[in-house]
Amino acid sequence: MLAAATPASARCRQVRRVCMPMSVSVLSGAVAPRVAAVSASTATQPPTCSGRQGSKRHFDAVTTGQFVMPERDLGRHAVDMAITVQDLLELPVLSEARPEVLSGGDLSRRPVRWVHTSEIYEIWPLLRGGEVLLTTGLGLVGASPEATAAYVRALARKEVAALLLELGRTFTRPPEALVVAAVEHGLPLVVLHGVVPFVEVTETVHPLLLDHQVEELRVLERASAEMNRRLVGGDGLPDLVAAVAELCGGLVGLYRMDGTLAAGSDVEDADDAWEVGVGTGPWARLVVTGVGSEHRRLVELCSGSLAVFLAHSDAATVTPSTAAAALLRDLASGRYVSGADIAERASALGLSAQPGKRLLALVVRTTTLTSGRTGTDAVVHAARRVLETCAAAEVDGQVLIAASLPFAELRERLSRLLDSIDAELSATVGGSVSLMTAGATVDDVTGLARSVPQAIEAATLATKLSLRSRLVLASDLGVYDLLSGVVADAELERFVDEQLGPLLGQDARTGSELVRTLDAYLEAGLSKTTAAAALGIRRQTMYARLERISRLLGGLAPDDRQRRTALDLALVTWRMRSSAPAHRPR
Residues in domain Purine catabolism PurC-like (predicted)? Predict the structure, then answer.
């Protein structure tokens, strides 16, 4: 247990939660992801890291044309391994385009995880953070200052590393609203004054990033082995915290939840802290100074090792509810150790494959604040009543559920669950279900690692598209999911222009909303009355719009299957790009 200590002066402004997987197999050496398969693979040869003295990276364009990083030992040097936005701008393929930084501060402290090229306005759902986004700004053409600001705000919330805007093709100068919003939200904005071959940029940068990722995994593997050696060797809490400081190369303090120091250094004015605990019960906060976001995985690994020690010291705090919360949270974030780890933890909760049934994950969002204990309890209670055996917990303001259901009765059982949750909420805290999404059905519990993220992604996409149905299966969004990976493709863009170009042009000039009208008409099954009601217009107005649509498209012919399919596909793509709501009849 944690010994008494003096109050800490550190006031951590940002707290990250690190929860320990419930399986005690972590003690046998499974704290960190294994990297043998990655590090052993040499089928493709990325640029090699050569040993150079000092910590500065450089690009040797004259001799090797390779981005060179010095070899690192464990410890603080792991921070310096990350490729940053500043590094990318110094590559010849980008430096020759005369980059000009308009916002973002010190770009040498902005690590890059990947590089994307996109002209989509609604690109943010496809990003995970740490990306450099290359664009000519085509998706911002005609956008209002408010829409431009919303674009920047969404990228900043996704923690995009930088936005690189090539001038000349779309804009001769950056839109003022773009610059103002980038400065306001702290998003690095770089304009490129020369033509940039985006393909060459990705071909140059991606091998470097992959090379870095493999090296990072090697560092994590060695750190995992060191922490596990100390755990098995019986090191106490002070020794473990000292090991964390040695591995991370900074001052480290472990604080109780009341702010008193339990072990390590009394760190002042820390920017980041990691909660250390099991499931929903944090026991302490780990503070590490002098590290950036690129060091996060190493600190999380060390936090997990400390969580193992603390849980082993006081295992009585582990309950089925905290175990369920820990499992679902780990599945949502991909922080599980292995398939065997998932199976062991799910089995302890009573989740297993059964004859005639399939496992799946659900996301439930309500009109009440689900992070409130009473609201969450209402959802969980209803889920257990309808689904019998299930694991349910609140994660990030929504309830995640893993359950086993008869596949033939899937939609009917989920509809019953939705009604049951509505009734439970009405009888307790009020409110109702605003959305329930289901991931893919899977044959065994290890498949939940796929179903949980799918259910979360389906909830995000369904909310973005403003679908009227409260129950959405991931399979219902198959077309959207298929197009999400190619929505920026030039051929698809030409297809949309061929099918809807005259209507899009007319809407842009006059605000006539002909595309929305056509979308509502097809969604209503060609019922003019239903479509008019969905749009909130009179039937006479609907008739007039359809006549104009037919004239602009050279005939509508919605009864023709081939024509209808082409229009539907074009409208789905348009809806994804514009985030227009689906006009479904009530």
Answer: 87-207
